[in-house]
Amino acid sequence: MKFPEDFLWGTATAAYQIEGAVREDGRGTSIWDTFSHTPGKVRHGDTGDIACDHYHRLDEDLDLMSDLGFRAYRFSVAWPRIQPEGSGPANQKGLDFYRRLVEGLEQRSIKPMITLYHWDLPQALEDRGGWTSRETSERFAEYASIVYEALSAEVGFWITLNEPWVAAWMGYGLGVHAPGRNDSAAALAATHHLLLGHGLAMERMRSVGDENQLGVTLNLHPAHSARDRDADREAARRVDGQANRLYLDPLFRGKYPEDLVSYYRERGIEPPVQDGDLEKISQPLDFLGINYYFRHHIRDAPDETPSQAPFSDLLARPIVPHAAEKTAMGWPVEPDGLTEMLVRIKDEYAYIPIYVTENGRAVDDYIDPEGDVNDEERISYLESHFRAAHRAIERGVDLRGYLVWSLLDNFEWAEGYSKRFGIVFVEYGTQRRIPKSSARWYSEIIRHNGLD
Ligand code: FCB
User: Fold this and answer.
1) Is the pTM of this model over 0.85?
2) For residue range 363-374, what is the model confidence (pLDDT) as tens digits?
3) Is 163 annotated in the active site?
4) CA atoms within 13 A on the CB side of 189
């Protein structure tokens, strides 16, 4: 089973999850600094203050990638390193760090892929409304153009946003992520301003007129009804509306999904759309990034009250099938959902180059008595998902690459350091890196550009 020539194999990370050094070289405060330092928000009170100390161990981590033969690396730029207060001139020291990173990748023939926004909004912007405020979209475009001007000659792949659903709904709708607001109206406003920010940033980057590939990354989850009941099917349709079509429709069709919009309108909420916004949001993408983890299995939940539970405001409840294998996050292992989503994009939205910009699983990893980390569950997860991706290619999907989440164990947001997604183990107290069995297995896959 071979993958297309020049298939981009690599790994992915995000700034707040690995860098640490939160007060160094002029970095400002982000909403995740504030949130993680608020008691009760993150498991064990963990914060990203030190994380994987990647900021100080850049060369070691680059060598690790190169020793393992990885061809691409998706990382995010921390907005508060570039603009500590979210606006104004660039902080040169912040840019210097990412320049060193990009040059280090170049020296090792690893292709860089930049994510501009992986959730670390400058706190100063949150204080003025954050993503519920239209001004944040403008600020984001300004920030994007600063980074683009500095690094566009070296970096060929640019992702504006990572998972706007998570930023908007986990952050503003459910309150389980920073900034911790619990209000569907705020989440809808945040959704619109994130997408608008994407559009405005695309315009600024596109105006440079180079050959770089510009796109956006969505977390997409097929939503199925959990039982053979009409009410469950309708609930699954609402979840599909919020989780998938709320992002895909404006990006590819220039409109919000009418069924979902009227559901919220009946409850007195509407996305704050102004004339011309949807044209900006729907300008052509060079590629789509998809993060895939699992499928939703949905039950109708008419008595639900809006809470911190996902989709509670849609009177819907995700359940995890009893029979499913589950990851350490409790997520069901469902490789077929990846094929399904990739094929759906082609059939319903666009024939467009796609990169799986994240896929992986949490395992209860530990260093065994031999000193190894033998994560066979992760190997079998990745293998089944690579096969699922290959099936999509056979069905005509233009899949160009695959970035495994994640290079290193890291700060897993509200779960802190308790959940390990790395293919390299991090012993946090000493910052020792130990490639897991999956890392060696993955390097063989890459060397063969496929599986037997
Ligand atoms: C995704 C995030 C990423 C990581 C994985 C497990 O939603 O983009 O940062 O936390 O989940």
Assistant:
1) yes
2) 999 999 999 999
3) yes
4) 18
